């Protein structure tokens, strides 16, 4: 299936065209229409099959319609590692190039300057926060995060996060 056959907004299609993405992978073909319909989804696929695009594209499609508040966090994407959080953020930047969707990567293992940048993104209401559980909890406990307007909650590599012992942190965030 071609991306152009999906009901995606022009900004999403322009980004895909600029990156020369034409054909959906099987996981994208199955997941994107479900997410566009507002359905919850659990998906499993091999590394390198386009899982990240499978959840980012429909979320960006919805956010680009301008029906969400711009001063709040609308989507949380949980990641088990800072490397994966940064990778997701980079992909989001590419896919949202033709849209006014903002993101912030929230992860630990860095200096106070980066913590302040993350805080600023959270307080100002980046549309999408890509976060490791521990660092997001730190920001929550300090009162920098309002999750009351979150429309999308993604657990990327959920099995790995559970294996790494993040289940209690995730449950605390979801509350």
Automatic annotation (TrEMBL):
<dbReference type="InterPro" id="IPR011545">
    <property type="entry name" value="DEAD/DEAH_box_helicase_dom"/>
</dbReference>
<dbReference type="GO" id="GO:0003724">
    <property type="term" value="F:RNA helicase activity"/>
</dbReference>
<dbReference type="InterPro" id="IPR050079">
    <property type="entry name" value="DEAD_box_RNA_helicase"/>
</dbReference>
<dbReference type="GO" id="GO:0016787">
    <property type="term" value="F:hydrolase activity"/>
</dbReference>
<dbReference type="GO" id="GO:0005829">
    <property type="term" value="C:cytosol"/>
</dbReference>
<feature type="domain" description="DEAD-box RNA helicase Q">
    <location>
        <begin position="1"/>
        <end position="29"/>
    </location>
</feature>
<keyword id="KW-0347">Helicase</keyword>
<dbReference type="InterPro" id="IPR000629">
    <property type="entry name" value="RNA-helicase_DEAD-box_CS"/>
</dbReference>
<keyword id="KW-0067">ATP-binding</keyword>
<dbReference type="InterPro" id="IPR014001">
    <property type="entry name" value="Helicase_ATP-bd"/>
</dbReference>
<keyword id="KW-0378">Hydrolase</keyword>
<dbReference type="InterPro" id="IPR014014">
    <property type="entry name" value="RNA_helicase_DEAD_Q_motif"/>
</dbReference>
<dbReference type="InterPro" id="IPR027417">
    <property type="entry name" value="P-loop_NTPase"/>
</dbReference>
<dbReference type="Pfam" id="PF00270">
    <property type="entry name" value="DEAD"/>
</dbReference>
<dbReference type="GO" id="GO:0003676">
    <property type="term" value="F:nucleic acid binding"/>
</dbReference>
<dbReference type="InterPro" id="IPR044742">
    <property type="entry name" value="DEAD/DEAH_RhlB"/>
</dbReference>
<feature type="domain" description="Helicase ATP-binding">
    <location>
        <begin position="32"/>
        <end position="175"/>
    </location>
</feature>
<protein>
    <submittedName>
        <fullName>ATP-dependent RNA helicase CshA</fullName>
        <ecNumber>3.6.4.13</ecNumber>
    </submittedName>
</protein>
<dbReference type="GO" id="GO:0005524">
    <property type="term" value="F:ATP binding"/>
</dbReference>
<keyword id="KW-0547">Nucleotide-binding</keyword>
